[in-house]
Amino acid sequence: MDISACPYHSQLSKEFKPFDLTDPFPVYKKAREEEPVFYSEELGYYVVSRYADIQEIFRNWQVFTSENAQTPPKPVPDAVRQIMVEGGIVGLSGLSGRIPPDHTRIRRIVTMAFTPKRLRKLEPDIRALAIEMIEKFQDKKHAELVKELVYDLPAFVIFMLLGVPKEEVTQVKAWAISRMMLTFSDTSEEEQLFHARQVVKYWDYCKEMVARRKQQLGDDFPSDLVRLQQEGYEISDREIAAMCYNQLFAGHETTTSLMGNGIRELLKYRHNWEKLCADASLIPGAIEEILRFNPSVITWRRKATEEATIGGFTFPKGADILLLMGSGNRDEAVFENGETLDIERKNAKEHLSFGSGIHYCLGAPLAKLEFKIVLEELTQRIPNLQLTPDQTFEFAYNTSFRAPVALEVEW
Predict the structure, then answer these.
(1) Which residue of 23, 81, 187, 191 shows the fewest CB atoms closer than 10 Å?
(2) What PROSITE patterns does this protein's entry cite (predicted)?
(3) Per the domain annotation, does 298 fall within a domain?
(4) Which residues of the chain have pLDDT under 50?
(5) By the 8 A CB rule, do 353 and 297 touch?
């Protein structure tokens, strides 16, 4: 399809609500079937819904750059931009917004610090933390799981990994929320000003974190990066701080979403929950299927550096592109009965929820480990867990991170 003609006449553009993630899947399905690439007038982005097209864009990083991955979805007011420029935020990126050769250089170094050995070392602490949190509500016969388990546990884990003291967790988590709202939501200028000031404080905290490690190394991820720097590997203090800045956000918000979505879906389609209670060996596969069926990161962004055709659709040079991973993951061309949650699905691992190609998510093993431990403990300790009837699920207003704000359960 040639889009040299006006791309703005799309019925789907009117039906697609990029910030309302309450139930986007019917529109996603319609897009795959009727208009697999369409233009969102609200965002000014071309929206891609089919698996093969999304995967091809992810893998072709030379043409479809990640430079806009951390760019707010709408133009930033001058006053907000000034705060961010003065605070050193503009142009800041960890790995998701970088391209080779910088991406290759930094990812290699980060991979040397973010090792399976470090994850194995964390596992007993993660399990102890999960047990401690579950035991606090286990005898109450009801809980709000976001507040009492899945919101804080991933934060404590990633902060453990990065060496953030427990007493600083609440503040850092608040800064991370401001970062999400500024980068992925549609907010007023007044709200953006508040979030921009918070994000600058967040960035200052990350720089100070690196400065402290330069004075005294510890047993944590930023210390490992500083050690590698001291051994002669090419990574700057700013780049180390940027990795912390991104990990402190991505490493817990997405895992919170994964667990909130996952537990909700397992209890909603309860036969799946009962299978896990009977056979814990099904849990790793169930996690892959949850990532496919209802991913924590439901969309991501790319920009076309030149005119390019994907799946018969020609994108103009400079086009901003929104990839609907939550749609591609249900594409019937890849996943039979894609709209059905099946925890024994053979090809669930082929989901797009961690990206594909050079930007595949480094934190995927940690997120899956945390959720595996939580499911193991919940299914054995509270096998008769069920959703509290008649509750309404709300989702944060943003383009990319989908998870219930609250999750009431009883047993």
Answers:
(1) 23
(2) CYTOCHROME_P450
(3) yes
(4) 1-6, 8
(5) yes
